[in-house]
Design a protein that fits this description.
Layout lengths: L1 E3 L8 E7 L2 E6 L4 H12 L4 H28 L4 E7 L2 E6 L5 H30 L6 H4 L4 H19 L7 H11 L4 H25 L3 H20 L6 H8 L14 H9 L5 E5 L5 E6 H10 L16 E2 L5 H6 L9 E5 L2 E6 L1 H13 L2
Parallel strand pairs: 1-5, 3-4, 8-9
Antiparallel strand pairs: 2-3, 4-5, 6-7, 9-10
């Protein structure tokens, strides 16, 4: 699974390894798992060492799953903070929430790792024992081939379970990324979290009817994760969210792309505004002219040059109902440029670049 939190040293966990610069930590509650495995082995009159060894191999598969998330995040420009192991699985933590187009790639990377492991193990089994080798784990055969078969099915199960489209599972994050293409980040998360909560209730009922403590524990993890994330996405949750909604500026001057730079300079001299949306006569947004770009054009192109010669077209745009806190957290603002708030093709607001920098500073103070 994947989580996104500000950088801070986690409590109740200790570092056990570092893979490609990514710390792997063990939560104190994880010690319950080997303890339960040992007790279960002793209760059946069997030595605990083989079961603990198999548990270690499963943990390696889980770590590889989480490192798959982390590797893809790094590939898309998001820093992986750490991987933490819990009794119910692992969680990869990142410093920011990715955009929908990036989140699904990060989320699917973990299950793909498990499928790759399963495919490799299946190849070994088919070469060594033929098609019957895939079913060795069901026979309880305590051999190397039985161990490989068991790991094959466990990796398939890990991939399938994590791809269930319910938050906070990887499948739920893929679902949120798809919903996020059409809805706000908050709304997409709440819908995915509600589906996750319903899944948890169904899992709990199954565990109760079958007296399965493991299913009940998984249901609790899924339910708590879904509820916590849903609450975190409610309006006014933090001072940063309130700040983001107040950061929008609605009173601003615009420029025409055909205006000479000397006219733009005269307009700029009348206001303290640093960034100017550029809109043509038909109301189409051309981009933004920053004060720095204006001065650059005056010096190197001359006062008769046009605004269009210095306009920056690659500027972030958001809808008026979009979650501005999420937008700023996602890093959708280009460095040194404002964010334009656009409604039906018309600029209705703007978050200036200096306010975006202020948000980043406030975010650092909150971590």
């Amino acid at each position: 699974m994947v989580r996104h939190v500000p950088t801070r040293e986690p409590g109740w966990s200790v570092p056990i390894a570092r893979v490609y610069g990514i710390p792997v930590r063990l939560h104190a509650s994880f010690l319950l798992l080997p303890a339960l495995v040992t007790l279960a082995s002793w209760s059946h009159g069997q030595p605990a060492a083989p079961a603990l060894g198999f548990l270690g191999l499963v943990v390696v598969c889980i770590v590889l799953h989480e490192l798959g998330h982390a590797w893809m995040a790094v590939r898309t420009g998001i820093r992986a903070e750490r991987v933490t192991l819990y009794p119910t699985g692992g969680i990869a933590w990142f410093e920011e929430i990715p955009s929908p187009s990036v989140e699904w790639r990060i989320a699917v990377a973990g299950p793909i790792v498990n499928l790759a492991i399963a495919a490799s193990l299946a190849g070994i089994l088919l070469l060594g024992r033929g098609p019957a080798g895939l079913a060795l784990s069901a026979t309880g055969e305590m051999t190397v081939w039985g161990l490989i078969a068991a790991l094959f099915w466990i990796n398939l199960s890990l991939a399938a379970f994590n791809l269930v489209p319910a938050y906070p599972m990887d499948g739920g994050r893929i679902l949120r990324s798809v919903l996020g293409l059409h809805w706000s980040h908050r709304r997409a998360t709440v819908v995915a979290a509600v589906i996750g909560a319903l899944l948890a209730i169904g899992l709990a009922l199954y565990g109760w009817s079958n007296r399965s403590v493991w299913h009940a524990a998984l249901a609790m993890v899924v339910f708590v994760g879904a509820v916590k994330q849903s609450r975190a996405e409610q309006p006014g949750q933090t001072s940063l969210e309130r700040w983001a909604e107040e950061a929008i500026v609605t009173g601003f001057a615009t420029l025409d792309p055909d205006q000479p730079l000397e006219e733009a300079a005269a307009r700029a001299a009348e206001t303290a505004q640093q960034d100017f949306p550029v809109v043509d006569r038909d109301g189409r947004i051309q981009g933004v002219l920053t004060r720095i770009a204006l001065y650059h054009g005056l010096e190197f192109r001359g006062p008769s040059a046009r605004v269009r010669d210095e306009v920056v077209s690659d500027v972030s745009r958001v809808g008026p109902g979009e979650d501005l806190h999420a937008v700023l957290t996602l890093g959708r603002a280009r460095s040194g440029l404002p964010i334009l708030v656009v409604d039906e093709g018309r600029v209705v607001g703007m978050i200036p670049a200096d306010r975006i920098r202020e948000f980043a500073e406030l975010g650092a103070l909150h971590t």
